[in-house]
Write a structure and sequence with these properties.
Strand order of the largest sheet: 1-2
Radius of gyration: 32 Å
Number of strands: 4
Number of domains: 1
Distance between the termini: 112 Å
Length: 339
């Protein structure tokens, strides 16, 4: 299984990075990693765009989810059923982000294993490359003299060194680690739902322990806020002892993700309406149908139908003209009888 992962994932990722390094003017490894990250995130854009649209739709549905919570009055089974029906009507999948996360994780592991080969033995940049890549002029030069391989970022940061490694503390690598952690924090916070009255997870759990019911949306928001703090620490712990090349990839990827999220989450509603139009219209039709039935029933059952219809925007039918004509005829006959 591991050999298959190396063959299908690690080797293609490694060779794409080598190809970019070989054709890049100056053949700088740091710039190659930056371009490699841009290429990867560009290829993933359709999948990321779909995920972000799902995220935005989830944020827009927060008022409706809160209304369902109020209407069901603690009935968890009914609430869950109504929420799933709403998701289905609106074309929203609560697990739509998992696919993108899995793809990113696989690429990250593949890049890490590829970089480890170069760190342990720089000649792997030739030995682990495809045969047709070894025919490129730069690969031939590196094969003849491995010292021609520039593993730095523009000569300032040795990307094979870790922030804390056998050589000791390396400040330039630590700056990359802290930068990647900050980028992770910003992109996580950007995706959190907006809740003005949100409580902390500790407060929610404390009140739940005393018998009070916890709002699922509020729990999710509190968990998201907690993860926005924990994830940067996890990034630091994970990358502080790894080659700074991985931190550079994480930093550039985090900045690209932040810009992509800002574009989707901050754009006008027109594109989202066009994408969700097919699923939103049936839901609106059901709501309008139910509202009209309720309004007509209330108009028919109340003596002040004209005022009720004015409030709801309904137009009452004209008065019964046949009855009014009969009343006029009977009044004329009574007047003639008196005469």
């Amino acid at each position: 299984m591991y050999g298959l992962f190396i063959l299908l994932i690690v080797k293609p990722i490694f060779n794409l990075l080598v190809l970019i390094t070989a054709i890049l003017p100056g053949h700088n490894f740091g710039l190659a990693i930056i371009l490699f990250t841009i290429v990867i995130y560009t290829l993933m854009w359709p999948l990321v765009k779909k995920q972000l649209h799902q995220t935005k739709r989830m944020r827009e549905l927060q008022p409706l989810l809160k209304k369902i919570k109020q209407d069901t009055k603690g009935d968890r089974q009914k609430e869950s059923k109504m929420v799933m029906e709403l998701y289905k009507e609106q074309g929203v999948s609560p697990f739509g982000t998992i696919g993108t996360l899995i793809v990113r994780f696989i690429i990250l592991i593949g890049l890490y294993l590829g970089l480890q080969r170069i760190i342990k033995d720089p000649r792997e940049i030739v030995n682990f490359s495809y045969d047709w890549l070894n025919n490129l002029p730069w690969l031939k030069e590196v094969a003849a003299d491995i010292g021609r391989f520039d593993e730095t970022l523009l000569g300032f940061i040795d990307l094979t060194q870790a922030a804390i490694g056998p050589e000791g503390f390396y400040l330039p690598a630590m700056l990359l680690v802290l930068g990647s952690a900050f980028a992770q924090y910003k992109q996580t916070v950007q995706l959190l739902p907006k809740m003005e009255d949100g409580r902390g997870l500790r407060q929610i759990l404390k009140q739940a322990g005393s018998g009070q019911s916890a709002d699922a949306m509020e729990v999710n928001a509190a968990t998201g806020r907690l993860m926005s703090i924990l994830l940067p620490f996890i990034v630091v712990i994970f990358t502080v002892q790894l080659a700074s090349a991985l931190s550079l990839y994480w930093l550039v990827g985090g900045l690209i993700s932040y810009l992509q999220q800002a574009r989707i989450l901050g754009q006008d509603q027109t594109e989202l309406v066009a994408m969700a139009d097919a699923s939103v219209k049936p839901a609106k039709a059901k709501v309008i149908s139910k509202a009209s039935k309720t309004t007509k029933a209330s108009v028919a059952s109340t003596p002040t139908a004209s005022s009720a219809s004015a409030v709801e925007g309904e137009v009452l039918p004209p008065p019964n003209t046949h009855k009014s004509k009969r009343n006029k005829k009977s009044s004329k006959k009574s007047k003639r009888g008196r005469r």
